[in-house]
Write a structure and sequence with these properties.
68% of the residues lie in helices and 0% in strands. With 260 residues, the protein is mainly alpha-helical. It binds zinc ion. Zinc ion binds next to loops.
């Protein structure tokens, strides 16, 4: 129990850092200095107002100095990251692979929120993520839960190639059919990274789950007139969702589908 509490606190602290990255990476500001400031009044945020999740609640969602509203995204990202760290530990136990999956989950949360807010997936996350995924997926992960999904360098390398190739083809085909960019280069690199971490079966399942959830949400948004036809919905969050489902339940989905 104590281990899960520690994981939750650690996850929320990392989540707090993710918020800094979500704000600064797309704006090309250093993620190290200066220290956190209120986006409205530019006053530095004191340590007591920088406690993940709790400070937002104590302050009633407003800056202590200028009373400007603080985006709900801040506690949300901290909470999400904390929950995923607990889930990783619960699912995969204590070990090196859990540390790797912490990094993987945090990267996916970071990518999702940047893509939602800015419609980009920055190279500074995905480009180092590709070799990291291949190395960790290929060499380090000895994971009983992912036996058929992500073992061996061959599966990780093939996964990265399939992720890249598949989405490159979709991008080329899409731009021919729709006469405009249908798939961003960021999605292609993201899926190469996912392929490294999850192996070739994992990247195919992720593609399927990501497209399915994206299509469902897209149709719902048109039905409920949230957005009109032809408006671009960022694909990154759906691919991240597909990756998470594959990470946690890919093994079961494969057994259920193939039968055993
Ligand atoms: Zn302020």
């Amino acid at each position: 129990m104590l281990v899960y509490i520690v994981a939750f606190i650690f996850g929320s602290v990392v989540g707090s850092f993710l918020n800094v990255c979500i704000y600064r990476i797309p704006r090309n500001i250093s993620i190290i200095t200066p220290s956190s400031r209120c986006p409205s009044c530019d006053n530095p945020i004191s340590p007591r107002d920088n406690i993940p999740i709790l400070s937002y609640m104590f302050l009633g969602g407003r800056c202590r100095v200028c009373k400007a509203r603080i985006s709900f995204r801040y506690p949300l990202v901290e909470f999400l990251n904390a929950v995923f760290y607990v889930l990783v530990l619960w699912r995969f136990g204590f070990g090196w692979h859990s540390l790797v999956y912490f990094v993987f989950c945090s990267s996916l949360i970071l990518i999702s929120f940047i893509d939602l807010n800015f419609q980009i997936i920055p190279d500074v996350i995905t480009l180092p993520g590709i070799p990291m995924g291949i190395v960790f997926g290929g060499f380090l992960l000895i994971n009983p839960f992912m036996r058929d999904l992500s073992l061996g360098l061959k599966s990780s390398l093939t996964g990265a190639f399939i992720g890249f190739g598949l989405f490159y083809l979709i991008a080329v085909a899409g731009s021919h059919i729709f006469k405009k960019e249908a798939m961003g280069g960021g999605d292609i690199k993201l899926m190469a990274m996912v392929g490294g971490f999850l192996g070739w079966k994992g990247v195919i399942l992720t593609t399927f789950l990501g497209s399915l959830s994206g299509a469902i949400v897209g149709v719902l948004m048109i039905l409920f007139k949230v957005r009109g036809h032809g408006s671009r919905i960022p694909f990154g969050p759906f691919l991240a969702l597909g990756s998470m489902i594959t990470l946690f339940y890919g093994q079961e989905i494969f057994y259920w589908y193939i039968g055993r």
